[in-house]
Structures
1.
Amino acid sequence: MPARPSSTPFVERRSVTAIDTARDSVESALELTPVDSHLHPEGSFDVSDHPVPTGREEIWRFTPLKRLRDLHGEAVYGTGTTQVTWTTPEGVRVASVEGEEARALRGVSGWVPNDRFSARVLAETPATLLVDVPAEAEVAEPVVVTLDGTDVEATEAGHVVLRFGRFSKAVVVLQHQGHASLAQVVEVVVGDGAQVSVISVQDWADDAVHLAHHEASVGRDASYKHVAISFGGDLVRMDANVTYAGPGGSAEMYGLYFADEGQHLEHRLFADHTAPRTKSNVVYKGALQGEGAHTVWVGNVLIRKIAEGIETYEENRNLVLTDGCQADSVPNLEIETGEIEGAGHASAVGRFDDEQLFYLRSRGISEPEARRLVVHGFFNDLIRKIGIPSLEEKLMSTVEDELAKNVLRGA
Amino acid sequence: MSTLEIKDLHVTVATEDGPKEILKGVTLTIGDGETHAIMGPNGSGKSTLAYSIAGHPKYTVTGGTVLLDGEDVLAMSVDERARAGLFLAMQYPVEVPGVSVSNFLRTAKTAVDGEAPKLRTWVKDVNGALERMNLDTTFSQRSVNEGFSGGEKKRHEIAQLELLDPKVAILDETDSGLDIDALKVVSDGVNRFREQEGKGVLLITHYTRILRYIQPDKVHVFVNGRVAEQGGPELAEQLEAEGYDKYVKASV
């Protein structure tokens, strides 16, 4: 979508909900009248400022609240049933900190909660898991933090801070697995000129519930790569936000999800261009299979008046593999300045392309094998962008396992 | 040996107003080692013939038979037809994002042969086939047909023809959109295929240009879903001079 200069802010909203139809479009229609926007919330650290969501709110309307085990409301935020372990490559400090040190880290990313659960997490959890990468450190090995849930009945909360000093280079992997009901806030501070990747893998058992907010502040000329990979869990909802602490910062936000029967996987992105000449590039791809598989992708982009010369692109593609699935895909772009390099988005929900299958099969490739190739291809480009070979390999085999459930069957 | 026999083939396609008959009784036999050209104006059913033989789901066969060496092609699935020895070089090859040419070719070769090709010779074979099509070796790392130029798509089709080595190749307007250099490269590829013992070619084209490089044994003129006239190579020359007008008028 080409950006147009305008004196009044305008918002573009569209919702794609497709079960049978394939759509692929870059929308050009714009509402030129000012509209109420959920992209300018009044934040507060005070939990009492945030009523329990009812499900009618714009930011909650897709989430099946009943399945959240009241994590969004009054659930007890316990600790200790999810086992947290980590690797500590040389030069990195990883520690669970409490007291004054933990309190000083609440809101360190600039996040001021605009919902009840994240306000509660910041206010109530006693400890913070801190990954501290010193300035100018170049860490070759990824820091792997494993959160292994042991009890789905015990509702829990966690606060994680990933702090990358200026000009540092590092990769942090948050690996979620096991049985848990977890409310989580992950705050990321990317120092000036740092080049970092944060990869969050939701490889939960089938009964897990995970409500997460990731907030990143990207420093001047820094590069931030955020990757969300969601395969497991009964319900996973992740908000991943990025703001810019200075000009020239760049955020790449990638996501890959695969929803099976009855699963709800929701990813909400927000690139808030708060500084000039910043970049955001969002690519999320998902596949769905089985009755009641539901995915939600909401891509919010706000280009603030100060954010001249920025560039943003967001893309979401969904491949619906069987009947009975629903994929919601909603890009929102709000522009307060037209003095930008570029802004665009694409969103698609589609089934297997019959022409692709015919082409492959006309070369002797059987139908199940052709489907497998197409899905591999669909995810392949994205997986290659992650940049960690061992994880890429594992992801490919996870995709393979998912496909074995459905795509290779039938035909 | 390989013989493709098409007898009284009737094919419909679904339209908003119900099924529409496109092929109205096509009969022709491509004998062992023969090359046949099918020529005809747009909309005469040439491509429908190609896609029906390959088994595209858009087309419904309502009558007639297609036999490859006596075997009932129409009873086979799309991929079974390919494994039986049919190959369709498409006019508009389809993009398959994220699937590399190399992965695609290996998967197809494994499917057609029923076993994986030997790694050492296979890499050499692929590189050789690409090179002969003037496609450099980095080509095999690209996604299938994605971002290919029109010429690259067609040359990639013919590289597949060489590597998969079918019994009968159907070339659907492989010449369309090619400049003269690419046309020669593609024609050389087809001719190398034909030089082998017993290979059949059904060459569908709108123009006579490619027939200067690929000499057909027989030429069929297709009009309104039927073969309106048959002859030798001289028929192509006649069409070059006179066009399709007299056949189109006769069929109305």
2.
Amino acid sequence: MGFIEILYAETRFVWAGLLRRKSALFTALLYPYILTAFVILVGSTMGSPQLFVVRVGIEPVPFFIVSSFMLMSIMGVVDDIFWKPLFDEFMGTLPYVIASPVDRVLYFVALPLPRLIIVLFIGLSSVLPVMIMYYGVAGVYEAVVVMLLAGFGALVFATLAMCITGALYIAGGETWRSLNVIRPLLMVLLGVFYPRWLMPLTAQYLSWALPPSHVVEAVHRMLAETTGNAVQYFVLLGVATALAILYAPIGSTSIRAWERKKLREGISV
Amino acid sequence: MSAVKAVLKAYFTAELLRNKGIVFGLLGLALWLSLFLAPLTLFRPPQVPAGAIASQVLVSIAIFLAYSSATWDWAWQIRWLLFEGILEHVIASGRSIFILYIGIVPISLMWYAAALAVGYLTISLLVSPPTISVVDPAALVLGVLTLAAVLFGYSMLLGGITISTGTSGPVMEFVGWILPIATGGIVPLRALPEIVQRFALTTPFSYPAELLRHALGLSTPILPLKTTSIVGSFYAFMFLVAALAYFKAQLKKMLREGVKTAWMY
């Protein structure tokens, strides 16, 4: 089974899932608004939105709606790489998945691509209306760029996610509990809610190792700087791409090692 | 009593000791809190004492964690029983389903206390150690009691919905966020827009939060304190009774129509 066939099958699966699980889709669309309302309401009782503007250089509403969207998009696309083996194990389908002739690495590479549909849905329902409200017609262009960058950020995360998934599942044990610690840690280090340039230096070093954190910074800088600095944006996107390529062989080895382990030791059902 | 002990022991051993759930759970919680608390520091004016802001945040976290316990421990338990195919065995055993809750609630409270301690530490690290002072102990007791009653009723309502529909993950996630925000759990009611204040006061959820904030000297209730106390207590009691009646009706419906299949999400 080639890459195109896997991709086609996954796309049909994701599309059917999205249409069938309307309540889950509805919740996903609402989340950027809920997270934005949560942070801004609590933040406003603690102080003032004007102080936020002085410190970050962006109005809180567009900043948090874009940040929440980036968070939902990146995790929505990549989450299946983290959870899929565990989900298959719970459902009892992992033995069939492992026994199938599909190339495991190709399968994991194909996993995030159809999920970019989620980025489109969430972006159209959250980023686009808010950006138009704040910036008028220019907001449409910014929203499109933000949505494209969110998709790109999710894709460059895929290879690192494969490294983490392979390593975790090889280690075995309480994988879902470990994932529930690793996911918020990654979200903190991505800098979606707290711009990376304001983080302590140690956190910045850790954050630089994550490919999508550079994309998130590019989006934040784009929103903060009215003139923009194209070179700086391209450098950030270049670093993200380079890191994704760097993690690719490790991710591939990691997934193959997990597959070999399953073939050697069998699967508990 | 033996059933209660068995549930308590099974829950404690399986969730907290064998799977090291408490360690992973608290680590995860601290990271989630950091994710949402870090940006809040960007709103803080330098002249306002950090301790006062930290106490507001701690109370918000305390109320949010209480909602989380009701949603993910108490209501989710029904979903878990349904999902694992245990619910029908519990009913067939002839024992009340509420026996499970007598076993689960102490563990849940222990979790709550540990999570609140982690919240305290995270706020202390990111903002400042919260300064807590009780100015009205009676209101504090009433606030805690009415909050417990309202949240148990809320979990039974969610449990009943789960039994009747077979799936509730998105509903729980959505309600678990919206409800504390829209009813003054996260932010003092006085700081919310008037339309939200009106909506919040029509629900039983706003009164306990108003009482708790008043008791800790963090905010004054919108309604007079006496009205807040009387209406809040009566409303909490009626809500609990109605929710229990709804839950029992769903159990009866399930016995007539069979168990719904719960879905993964």
